[in-house]
Amino acid sequence: MPVNTPPVPYQPKSTPKVIVAVTLAAAVGIPALLLGLILLLTPILQPATIDAALAAAGLEGHRTAAYVGALAVLALLMVNFGAIFSGVISWYERRIAGRMQSRIGPNRAGFAGFFVWIADAVKLLLKEDLVPAEADSVLFRAAPYFVLVGFALTFVVLPFGHSLVVADLNVGIFYVTSVTALVVVGILISGWSSNSKWALFGGMRSAAQVISYEIPAGVAIFIPVAMAGTLSMQGIIRAQGGLPWEWFVFRNPAAFIAFFILFTSQLAEANRTPFDLPEAESELVAGYLSEYSGFRFALFFLAEWGNIWVLSAVATTLFLGGWQIPFVSAEYVDGLRGSGILPAAAWWGWNAVSMVVFVLKAIVLSNVVVWLRWTLPRIRVDQMMALCWKYLVPGAFACFVFTLFWELAVGVAPGVEVVTGVGLTVFATVLALLFFRRVRLNIQAVQGDKFDLSNW
Amino acid sequence: MPKTANPASEYVDNVTDTVQSFWHGLSITLSYMLRRPITTQYPDRTELRVRDTLPPRYRGFLEVDAAICTGCQACERACPIGCIQITLEKDPANPKQRVVTQFDIDEAKCMFCGLCVEPCPTGSIQHTREFEGAQRSVRNLTIRWAEPEFPVYKVAKGAEYFPRVTLGSLVRAKLDARPWHAPGPEYLPPEPPSAKAAEPAPKPPAKAAATPTVPAAKPADVMKAAAEAAPPAEAAAPAAPTVIAPVAAPAALTPADGQKA
After folding, report:
1. How many whole angstroms separate alpha carbon B106 and alpha carbon B83?
2. Residue numbers of the domain that contains B99
3. B167/A3 CB distance under 8 A
4. Are the C-beta atoms of residues A194 and A152 closer than 8 Å to each other?
5. Cα separation of B246 and A339, whole Å?
6. Which of A4, A372, A374 sits opposite B128 (nearest CB)?
7. Is residue B160 a part of any domain in this protein?
8. Where are the alpha helices (DSSP H) in chain B?
9. Can you tell me the distance from the alpha carbon of B67 to that of A439, in angstroms, rounded to the nearest whole number?
């Protein structure tokens, strides 16, 4: 009997160094470029700076043109940030989903499949933009833009750092909740105009869900607003501090609960699992976007993934101290600005640090969003409604009322806030440690006491 | 809803249940996140080459060792779907020596039943562990073992041992020589072996020479036709010069350590 070929020396293929280098350069370079531009342009393209520069150059007559130009640049920058964030997180989410399901996830385009989001975008742009024959074609074509606009407008007030915000509106957080409501309009229009029952069901579910969850979210938002005494995003952050016990989430027991209520409601508003009923694949094909293809489909997904940043940034701003740098007060950084048209170098440095702090907090929260999606199954419609109306709404109201009394108590004895802050910080740390112990036990139960992050 | 339950305590129970299921669920998914994925990255990142991990009797692509093929056509007759096509001719230089001018196996049709392996008297035709032969053109899956043509092997009286090339090396060489995107041949795989040589011949042989395209053609007919066609071809000279040479190629591939039968 002939014997088979003996095993030939074999080396598993590894990714060429060039591809690894290009991928790492892109993975570091693209976010660095975007955040760098935000750091550079948002403080410069403010009315005060533009006016001062125009006055110095003797060009006061061109104010309108300068303002429009500045707005166009900032809008382009912010929409690009949202789009690229949603692209990268779509790759990241698929990789994490793979890991959590003992798979690998996308691994072909670039090192660890990093460029898969670019490949997806190119593919979607090349697809036919199909409008069903019986659809209301005008509304069908318009619907994705409502969703995109509702998503992109939030970036006007989302802060990135100490002075890094397009416009610090005095109604900041109220503005965010209002423009996000435009997303529901877009989803409802897309569901109705598709002239498909799946899409209509998805649109109606989405409307019911988003409108319901606006209430607990809105009431939960009142709590940091009541604590800070302002609606402005920057004002709310300035009312907090850099250290955990100075964050709103730990300064008030009701805020600690309200943080989770807000986070859950925002997940529901962003149509994320476990609240992705509007596009439940197993029941509704793809819900309101069943009939969409090509670029318009891409816009829906851009807004959906980009909303992860929006909800993380809002939660960070309201409860987690935003960009506050530990041991450095916001007033100290203000004082560094100097009186010139352009701020001093030290001011830029502290702004960069504050941006890093904010982005890190938002990324940690984004991780939790992704992590939750691959942990929880989709809930039923009645459960979704029961959760909102039976648990979150009363809970949020109770927290709100408690906060009102709490603020009265803080007014009498300010020390109570410090004590609660330290106490809740310790409590949260202990919870986190217990949680990681639980994770370690889960790993030990299967493969001994070791983390294995190989096979990427 | 259990009737005995107090609504208030049920409400609290639901909240604690939710918190607990978050706690356990998140810790479980995070622990999976920190484990090694089960999935292997098949084509190029497996720890061992997949074909080396297959069992020895795996029925992959068929391989013919021309050096020990007797040209008996038992495999062709045994094949239930007719994916083997063999044509024999007489060596024009040495009429006693028969030559295999065509030995095509259509791996696309082959159902890997192994019935051709069993009747082979010398163990020339064998299944290998090769299975990765993806081709853009399905015609490229027809592996032509009589390229170049080879003389049939004469079994010595009482021989129990036939020196065979290490199983898999020949088919690997054939597969490696053909890139996956190679254009397929223009002709249908069972090409008439000596159509050109038969052209100048009188009518009946030419017709006979064309028949081998039909798998049912009797080998005897083919040989007769080939024999009749051969003399004029030889007279025309350059048509069949390769007939003598073919032994070289399989011999070169034969390793020193012939395997015991």
Report:
1. 5
2. 50-191+238-253
3. yes
4. no
5. 92
6. A4
7. yes
8. 7-33, 42-45, 74-78, 169-177, 195-198, 203-210, 219-235, 248-253
9. 63
- Cα A225 vs. chain centroid, distance in angstroms? 20
CA–CA separation, A199 and A284 (whole Å): 7
Asked, for residue B29, whether it belongs to a domain, the answer is: no
B150 and B69 Cβ atoms separated by less than 8 Å: yes
Give contacts of A455 with chain B, Cβ < 8 Å: 36-37, 39-41
How many domains is chain B partitioned into structurally?
A: 1
Closest CA–CA distance from residue B52 to any residue of chain A (Å): 6
Question: CA of B259: which chain A residue's CA is closest?
Answer: A2
Question: Tell me, what amino acid is at B83?
Answer: C
**B135: Cβ–Cβ under 8 A, 6 or more apart, which residues?**
B141, B178, B180, B182, B184
Whether chain A has a CB inside 8 Å of the CB on B16: the answer is no
Residue B253 has pLDDT above 70, yes or no: no
State pTM to two decimals.
0.76
DSSP per residue, A101-134: TT-----SSSGGGTTHHHHHHHHHHHS-----TT
* A5/B166 touch (CB, cutoff 8 Å), yes or no: yes
Measured between CA atoms, how close is A17 to chain B, in angstroms?
Answer: 16
| CA A182, A184, A187, A193 torsion-angle sign | negative
Find the closest chain A residue to B45 by CA distance.
Answer: A12
B37: nearest CB among A1, A2, A102: A102
Mutation for testing the B interface, residue in A3, A5, A102 having most B CBs under 10 Å: A5
Does residue B224 sit within a domain? no
A383-395 burial, b at 16+ Cβ within 10 Å, e below that, comes to ebeebbeebbbeb
- Identify all chain B residues contacting A437, using CB atoms and an 8 Å cutoff: none
**pLDDT for A2:** 55
pLDDT in tens, A332-347: 877 777 777 777 788 8
State whether residue B255 sits within 8 Å of chain A by CB: no
Q: What is the rounded distance in angstroms from the CA atom of residue B113 to the CA atom of residue B79?
A: 9
Which of B10, B13, B28, B36 best tests the A interface by mutation, with the highest count of A CBs <10 A?
B36
Q: How much is the pLDDT for A398?
A: 92
Q: A139 has which bridge partners?
A: none
Residue B248 lies in a domain: yes
Q: What is chain B's mean pLDDT, rounded?
A: 74
Specify the CATH number for the domain of residue B180: 3.30.70
**Ranges of chain A whose pLDDT falls below 70:** 1-8, 278, 280-282, 447-449, 455-456
Q: Of B210, B238, B215, whose CA–CA distance to B226 is shortest?
A: B210
Q: How far is B47 from chain A (nearest CA, A)?
A: 6
ipTM score here?
Answer: 0.78
Instruction: Please work out, in degrees rounded to the nearest 5, the angle formed at the alpha carbon of residue A419 by the alpha carbons of A413 and A423.
Output: 155
Q: Beta B98-106 vs B125-127: how paired, if at all?
A: unpaired
Q: For residue A447, what are its two tokens?
A: 């493969």
Quick check: A452 and B34 in contact, CB under 8 A? yes
